[in-house]
Amino acid sequence: MIELVNIRKVFNMGKPNEFTAINGISMQIDSGKMTVLKGPSGSGKTTLLSLIGCMARPTSGRIHLMDREITSLPERFLTEIRRKTFGFIFQQFNLIKGITVLENVMLPAYPGGEKYSLLKKRAMHLLDIFDISRKARDRVEWLSGGEAQRVTIARALMNNPFIVIADEPTSHLDTKLSRELMGIMGRLKEDNRTVLIASHDPVVYESDAVDRVIRIADGKIEEHR
Amino acid sequence: MIFHPSIIALYVASLLVSFMISYSAYYGIQILRKWDIESGSELQLVLERRTYLISTILTYLFVFQLISLFLYIYTAEQLHVLFVGAMCAAGTLYVNTCGYPALILKMVTFLLAGLWLILNYADNKAYDYPLTKRKYLLLLIITPLLLTETALQTAFFLRLRPDLITSCCGTLFSTGSKNVISEVFSLPSMQVKIAFYLCMASTVASGIHFYRKGKGGYLFSSMSIIMFFVSIIATISFISLYFYELPTHHCPFCLLQKEYGYIGYLLYLTLFGSTVFGIGTGALMPFRNVKSLTTILPSIQRRLTLLSLILLVIFSAIATYPMVFYDFTLEGY
Amino acid sequence: MRNSIEHQKNIIDFALSSLLRRKGKNAGLLFVYTLVVFALASVVFFTHSIRKEASIILEGTPEMIVQKIVAGRHDLIPLIYMDRIEKIRGVSSVKGRLWGYYYDPVVGANYTLIVPENFRSGEGNIVIGEGISRTRLAFEGDTLEFRAYSGKIINLKIKNIISSESELLSSDLIMVSENDFRRLFGTPVDYAVDLTLNVRNPRELSTIALKISEILPDTRIILRDEILRTYDSVFNWRGGILIVILSGALLAFIIFAWDKASGLSLDERREIGILKAIGWETSDIILMKFWEGIGISLTSFFSGIMLAYIHVFFTSASLFEPVLKGWSVLYPQFKPIPFIDASQIATLFFLTVVPYTVATVIPSWRAATIDPDSVMR
Fold this sequence. Notes:
The complex is a heterotrimer.
Chain A: E1 2-11, E2 19-29, E3 34-38, H1 45-52, E4 60-65, E5 68-69, H2 75-85, E6 86-89, H3 101-106, H4 116-129, H5 145-156, E7 163-167, H6 175-190, E8 194-199, H7 202-205, E9 212-217, E10 220-224
Chain B: H1 5-34, H2 42-78, H3 89-93, H4 99-125, H5 132-158, H6 169-172, H7 180-186, H8 189-213, H9 217-244, H10 263-284, H11 297-325
Helix pairs in contact in B: 1-2, 1-5, 2-4, 4-5, 4-10, 8-9, 8-11, 9-10, 9-11, 10-11
Chain C: H1 4-21, H2 23-58, E1 64-70, E2 73-75, E3 77-78, H3 81-86, E4 91-104, E5 109-115, E6 125-128, H4 130-136, E7 143-147, E8 153-161, H5 167-170, E9 173-175, H6 178-185, E10 191-192, E11 194-199, H7 205-215, E12 219-223, H8 224-262, H9 266-277, H10 282-314, H11 321-325, H12 342-368
Parallel strand pairs in C: 5-9, 6-8
Antiparallel strand pairs in C: 1-2, 1-11, 1-12, 3-10, 4-5, 4-11, 6-9, 7-8
Helix pairs in contact in C: 1-10, 2-8, 2-10, 2-12, 8-12, 10-12
């Protein structure tokens, strides 16, 4: 479903602080499965996620999404594809302060041009699924870590994407909440979505829901399982 | 030079617009030279991002030029008291040689900017920016025109000195005067009327044909352009007469006055709008075979055609209204 | 297919909430912006209104005035000239006019004395303007002393105060009878100060003026339109100069606006990064910034205009009086006639909103091109 062919990503090309984050990675992500990218920080996991999730373009190599080559698509179309295909859960939560939980969840759908009331309904429904609808009108600053995490998951699902990408989702959670999170990820998989997680947390990569673990180090793959 | 606040405002606007277009042209050249949609390189990304800026700038420019066009005429109208023989804007613009050319260039750049925006819209809908190079070529054509317009407008106002003798629209637009514009009125009004309605009918017919069959886009577009000129001539020749209910008052600017209910704005806006959409349809014709545009272009063109036709019909309706409902008869003099 | 209107509505919603979330930063901008609009709008409204008033007043004046010139200066004109002028085709009426200036040492002011066409207040009586009444504290029934050309004192009783809608011209006026005028200034009976004409067809004015200068070579002809043009020019000029002076303030404002727009705080940068990461396009961010700008511009523009309207038309432009009216002892109290039209709004739009928009275009775009993956790093 997602195929990377010989991807390289170099930052600050030509400058003294030139840095190769990804150095020739080829891989395939299967749909409907949960894949974990495992590796220490600085290994290039995050960069890889951003490339797969159409947030950045590789320096060289090709990326295919569902048999469509997206590497050289102009940013405009890449964004549209990303919005419809992917849902992101960030390491830092990245919720917008000063607006309510509900509005935060609705935001990814604003560019789609749907009616506001429809968006509201859908967002409320999502908050319901994750059991935080009672916090809908609260400011995000007042949420606990676990609650905020669930809000970001709800937000990631706002556009009903079939691929969910999570970057170190358990870094701000204790073990209990981490296990809860993996439970939610498992449910997403059962919903027929593809889940891709980058993490160096054992609770994540040793979870039963995981189908495949890919080990990344220094911008290269060392696979197993 | 006259220090009227509106003149200063027009200077400021022109200066800013000139700056914006020069900035865009500079980067436009870069885009023309280095654009390569296939490459996906850093430079390409930078260029793509810059096109967003230029599109934004040109949208603003389009709106500013329109307002500037009307403010220019309005200011000329207000200044007419300062010139002997000038009864309205038409006289003021005639005071020195830069007045009318500046006006014409303003209209031309407005239409071209509208055309650019239509091309831009189509370009953005396709997944590989197929029209980008041509778009920026157009930009490089618009730039010198706009800069010239700024220069002309500046020169016009700088050279204005009160008390200069000029011909007012009475002598300028009435029969007997020897310049080009007066030739239009010596055209017998019946013939111009026939030409106008014939032209209108043909344009509408070709537009509907294109809308339904998808053929004859060039024809429709050319008719649109012809219609523009015919309409201007018709406005001066007989349409304005009916609004003023005077057989000798041909001035096209007085229609913008309060006395006539500001009807001129509606008239000219619909005409200009119709022409922009008509030209846009034709400008997109050559690209119907481009791979990324084959699916979307026809629907865009149909929408443009529809808009153009609706505006044209409204224009004709407004133009015809006084002929039907006012007590004034032109023929039979 | 995206629904454009809903799309815009959603973005506007976020833009407005964004503005409200940063009240502190935006309040300063709003304040300065409104101030600039206020200053410029006051100038524009005021000069326009004065110009309009001048033209309204001048409508009642004669179309043509004939004055005798001796050695380059204006001299009394013999009334027999009237016969020769009457004979010119196109002239509908000729009249002699008596008017002059009187210096009052008591208050150090110059009064304009005029004999109107129909003076009904009776011999020995005068009608005076409000300015004189205020300065001399002289009211109906009071007597004013005048020193005639011979040195003799003439007492004239105030019958009435001129109640005029436009004090601009009547403030220092005294209307007096013909006899009293001649007594005061010693103007001989067969002479007038100048002649006023009315013509049948206004287009003939220049032709008639030409003829008069041929048959009466020692005269000069003043057309009402010329007076109008002169007043118009002066007010244009004064209004324009003020705007040019204010342009310094305008420039400072633009730089301020550009700086504010460019200086994105870390928070703002992060916010835009998040939006881009969750799927907003560059064009969506540009749109959002556009609506933010519109929100600020419209608020400031309309507040500034309203305040200027109140300032000019309700407080008679108290802040500008000295510059725009020139100096004199008798200040007419005048209420400018409210008169706004679309061209003034367009002028102000070009002087304020357009520069602001242009100054913020590039900073907005730069903000919009923040990398979507910036929040991942």
